[in-house]
Amino acid sequence: MTNGQIIALAIGLIALVGAIGIFSLAFRRERTKSTVGTFDREAKVASRRRSKEVGAASPDAGTVTTLVEEDDAATTAEAPVETEVITVTRNQFDESRRRFLNRAIGASFGLYLAAFLGTTLAFLWPKLQGGFGSVIDAGDVDEIRRLTATPEGRIQPLYIAEAQSYVMPFEESEAAGTSFDGIPVIAGGFTALWQKCVHLGCRVPWCASSQGFECPCHGSKYNAHGEYFAGPAPRNLDRFQVAVENGRLLINTGIVEQTPKADKPTIVYPQGPSC
Choosing a second label site near 35 at 20 to 30 A (CA), which of 59, 162, 185, 265? Predict the structure, then answer.
């Protein structure tokens, strides 16, 4: 798992824990707090008078009766205060504005969290076919051999954008006794170097004049086989496992191989001035 995947997973877990905390606080507050209303003395007197007028019948067990005074401007000093009785069900009474807002906020946050977790899982989930992280078909081996050799006998890398790698000529006989011996990073006379510098991850361009890779960020240098030559890089360029099937070079970008600095390089570098 790469550092980016670890960071994304950590962010997802933190967001999930935060969501659980927010929901628990919201529901605890909703259970322990309720709005308590009181009537003033005049409202109580009016309520009792109204009850006598409408009879001794009490409201249904499932309802709550609320008294609302009419506008003071509509009353006169001579006329008694008229009140309007509004009957609502207990479910309607309990559906307060605070509960509605809590549910709206919870639903919005839940949708955001679901979208975030979905994106995180899509990023972390391995791609089974196509794209970086899977097996990439780099092309016909004979055609790659033609493209990576110049008439002057120098090397020209074949860059495979989908695999984020440089395909370089590298015979298996040259790897005998080196750190590449015994690992499947050479096939059909080629190796696939990851484009990232192992120092801080900058993309390393090819320098045709020196016949090597030179990092423009901090000056690390590697020969044509991706072996360390100079600079702050801690090891050789990373590379992917490769194989040849039906005459085609396959690059497995899901498996990265790391190798230490070589005591004795397998190819001469530099072969000319640096870029």
Answer: 59
C-alpha closest to that of 166 among 133, 191, 141: 191
Under a CB-based contact definition with an 8 Å cutoff, are residues 187 and 240 in contact? no
Q: Answer yes or no: are the C-beta atoms of 252 and 240 closer than 8 Å.
A: yes
- 216-264 per-position pLDDT tens digit: 999 999 999 999 999 999 999 999 999 999 999 999 999 999 999 988 8
- Give CA–CA dist 243/23, Å, rounded: 52
With beta carbons less than 8 A apart as the criterion, state whether 82 and 68 touch. Answer: no
How far is the C-alpha of 257 from the C-alpha of 175, rounded, in Å? 15
Tell which residue, 200, 198, 166, 204, has the closest CA to residue 185.
166
Alpha-carbon distances, residue 16 vs 3, 10, 105, 120 (angstroms):
20, 10, 16, 12
Closest CA to 199 of 186, 177, 216: 216
How far apart, in whole angstroms, are the C-alpha atoms of residue 137 and residue 250? 5
